[in-house]
Amino acid sequence: MGTNDLSRPDSSRPDDPARVTAWVHGAVQGVGFRWWTRSRALELELVGSATNLADGRVQVVAEGPRERCERLLESLRGGRTPGRVDHVAELWAEPKGGLSEFVER
């Protein structure tokens, strides 16, 4: 059982719509991290945003098929990001909709 299996409700499927909010901790501001995240999200056809927070973290909100959101999280944790990622906290929820693109804020 992988780590993603623990956070997935038994009834969800990889193509079910999902929303994930991730808080990325580390040296992730001023290094092109939001641009890089947006590029990965667009490749995965996700909508949402990447936003710098006042405390130095970046908040990433993504909506789309659950499996693609999981792949974005894997990229954020994958070690090939700009800057340095120390930790990624995640929160899954039902998609809210109303998003049409992925933006940097």
Q: What does this protein structure show overall?
A:
The protein is 27% helix and 36% strand. The chain has three helices and five strands. A hairpin with a 5-residue loop joins β2 and β3. The radius of gyration is 13 Å and the shape is globular.
Essential attributes:
105 residues, 27% helix, alpha+beta, single chain, 5-stranded mixed β-sheet, 5 strands, disordered N terminus
SSE order and pairing:
Layout lengths: L2 H5 L9 E11 L5 H11 L3 E6 L5 E8 H12 L6 E10 L8 E3 L1
Parallel strand pairs: 2-5
Antiparallel strand pairs: 1-3, 1-4, 2-3
Oligomer type: single chain
- The share of residues in helices is 25-40%
Shape: globular
Return the string of H and E elements: HEHEEHEE
For the residues shown, what is the average pLDDT? 91
Low-confidence stretches are: 1-6
Strand element count: 5
Return the structural class. alpha+beta
Strand proportion, as a percent range, falls in: 35-45%
* Count, helices: 3
TL;DR of this structure?
The chain is an alpha+beta fold and 105 residues long. The protein has helices at 3-7, 33-43, 66-77; strands at 17-27, 47-52, 58-65, 84-93, 102-104. The chain is 27% helix and 36% strand.
